[in-house]
Amino acid sequence: MRRRPFCQRFAFAATIASLSLGASAVPASAQVGIGQVAPAPLLLCDAGHDLLQPQVSSGNSYVAPANGTITSWSTHAAPGESDSQRLTMKVFRQVSANTYAAVGHDGPRELRSGALNRFPAAVPVQTGDVLGMHVVAEGDFGTGCAFDAGAEAFRYLDLTGDLPDGAAGGFSPGIPGFRVNIAADVGPTNAFLLERLKARKKKGIAILTVIVPRPGEVALRGPGIKPISGAGAKAARFTPGGKVKLKIKPHKKGKKAKRLERRLRKKGKAKLKVRVTYTPSGDASNTLARKVTLVRK
After folding, report:
1. What residues are paired with 169 via a beta bridge?
2. Residue ranges of the alpha helices (H) in the chain?
3. Which is more confident, 95 or 204?
């Protein structure tokens, strides 16, 4: 990693969500902000580095205050012309002193240069885990990995390489006065994501991808469609951040199923609302709704 010569000083803007350090788990309705980003990153990094921020002297901590799920993360990309900046959001867990293990990630993600980039995620965290990043590709001039925090008393930590999940490594103190340019929202332990729907128009069905952070079960319900539950979609088969594919198709029985089938035959499409319920092992369930259009040609 190196500091580029054209770096300038800007005031940083911390995320403003408050922390609840005494909690054992993020409440079901809460979102907790960790980490910080600035209007413009100042320290430009080469590719191939892991960074994390164990401590700060002011503003939001980068440390997860409770067990939960990272539901989104953000970073401010450096300016560039024909840019190809890419970052991976990573979660680290302290092993000893400056030795940390990578325990989760999202990405790599392509960044829009010179802008605040925000991405959805479903990555589990435990109390004390530290938010960080891996610089995958550096674009024209580098990737904005950190920003000038003035009189920051604590250094970020840097490791040359890309620790895979489950692996640990020794980190070294970074440049004084800078903080890692990344922030995240931590939601409850049963938070999950619904990805974009993929239609199979010849058959009048659709595939909905669900991203789950922990082992558990996924269920699908909706008027006139074949339900999926329990053994039909066990999230336990997937690693954190894994994907469960749910097939949305008309049921063969019932009045609602017959009405759905008639709409598909007559109009070639049918709109409905489905509900996906995710129940992590040993935890409360969480349900998300999604409007769906089935198309048959």
Report:
1. 100
2. 255-267
3. 95
C-alpha torsion 196→200→205→210, nearest 10: -30
Kindly report the CATH class assigned to 193-295.
mainly beta
Report the distance separating Cα 99 and Cα 163, nearest Å: 12
Q: Is 161 left (phi over 0), alpha (psi -120 to 50) or beta?
A: left
**pLDDT tens digit string along 149-191?**
888 889 999 999 999 999 999 999 999 999 999 999 999 999 9
Cα 156 to Cα 179: distance, rounded to the nearest angstrom: 6
3-class DSSP state of 283: coil
In degrees, rounded to 5, the angle at the alpha carbon of residue 165 between the alpha carbons of residues 29 and 18 is 30
Yes or no: say if 179 and 115 are a contact pair by the CB < 8 Å rule: no
Question: What are the CA-CA distances from residue 5 to residues 2, 9, 43, 141, 291 (Å)?
Answer: 9, 12, 10, 10, 50
Identify whether the C-beta of residue 151 lies closer than 8 Å to the C-beta of residue 57: yes
* Average pLDDT, rounded, for the chain: 84
What are the residue ranges of helices labelled H in 130-204? none
pTM of the predicted structure, to 2 decimals: 0.82
pLDDT digit string, tens, across residues 6-57: 233 322 233 322 222 334 677 666 789 999 998 767 788 888 999 999 999 9
Report which of residues 74 and 215 the model is more confident about: 74
Structure tokens at 19: 């922390």
32-187 fold:
Jelly Rolls (2.60.120)
Sequence-distant (≥ 6) Cβ neighbours of residue 127 within 8 angstroms = 24, 64, 65, 66, 67
Q: What are the start and end residues of each CATH 2.60.120 domain in the chain? A: 32-187
In sign, the C-alpha dihedral spanning 278, 234, 199, 123 is positive
- Please tell me the distance from the alpha carbon of residue 159 to that of residue 169, in angstroms, as a whole number: 8
Q: What is the DSSP letter of 134?
A: E
Closest to 52 in 3D by CA, of 83, 88, 81: 88
- Residue pair 271/209 in contact (Cβ under 8 Å)? The answer is no
